[in-house]
Amino acid sequence: MPERTLTGADTGGLAAILGRMTAPHTDTPTPADPAFFPDLVPELLIENLTASLGFWVGLCGFEVLYDRPGDGFAYLHAGTAHLMLEQVGVGRNWIPGALERPLGRGINFQIMVPDIAPLLVRLAAAEWPLFMAAETKWYDTGDTQAGVAQFLVQDPDGYLVRFSSRVGAPGITLSA
């Protein structure tokens, strides 16, 4: 892709986006950080909390921020990626229709991580199958491209998870 120089009003929003895309991954946020509790957190209905925690915490590196074992519930995070797990048939479930496996059909959850390699090693050691092998992919983002290393895996209930790490945004020069 040819190099593009942005000037004037173009650079404000795009510079901020590209800065976030190429910035190093930060550590776990603190409660004072607004990202600590993001405005959108998916809650996944699951069949077995223990099995799901084994996948999400044991293999994927998430941590339990808090849980309610009597309700079959756990709130997890890895950096700024958050999700909730809720076991069907325990506690209060909101189920709008029949639950058929794989759960979460038609959606995949993209989770940014600093490096996908450690996840791939843990999943391989556990003989956990990948839905899509690791690849490096460049996506058009308007007049630029953004690169990610990524792979897809299904959790114990069939939810599709795409772990990605940034590999840069070549071919663009920002100037004031």
Molecular structure report:
- 19% of the residues lie in helices and 38% in strands.
- It is an alpha/beta fold and 176 residues long.
- It has one domain: 2,3-Dihydroxybiphenyl 1,2-Dioxygenase, domain 1, CATH 3.10.180.
- β4 and β5 form a beta hairpin.
- The longest helix is centred in the N-terminal third of the chain and has 13 residues.
Quick description:
By secondary structure, the protein is of the alpha/beta class. The protein has helices at residues 10-22, 49-59, 117-125; strands spanning 4-6, 43-46, 63-68, 73-78, 81-87, 108-112, 130-141, 144-154, 160-168, 172-174. Helix content is 19%, strand content 38%.
First and last CA, distance: 22 Å
Task: Work out the helix count.
Answer: 3
* Count of individual beta strands: 10
Task: Write the CATH homologous superfamily.
Answer: 2,3-Dihydroxybiphenyl 1,2-Dioxygenase, domain 1
Low-confidence stretches are 1-25, 172-176
Instruction: Specify the overall morphology.
Output: globular
Largest sheet: 4 strands, mixed
CATH-defined topology: 2,3-Dihydroxybiphenyl 1,2-Dioxygenase, domain 1
H and E order: EHEHEEEEHEEEE
Feature tags:
alpha/beta, 176 residues, 10 strands, 3 helices, 2,3-Dihydroxybiphenyl 1,2-Dioxygenase, domain 1, single chain, four-stranded mixed sheet
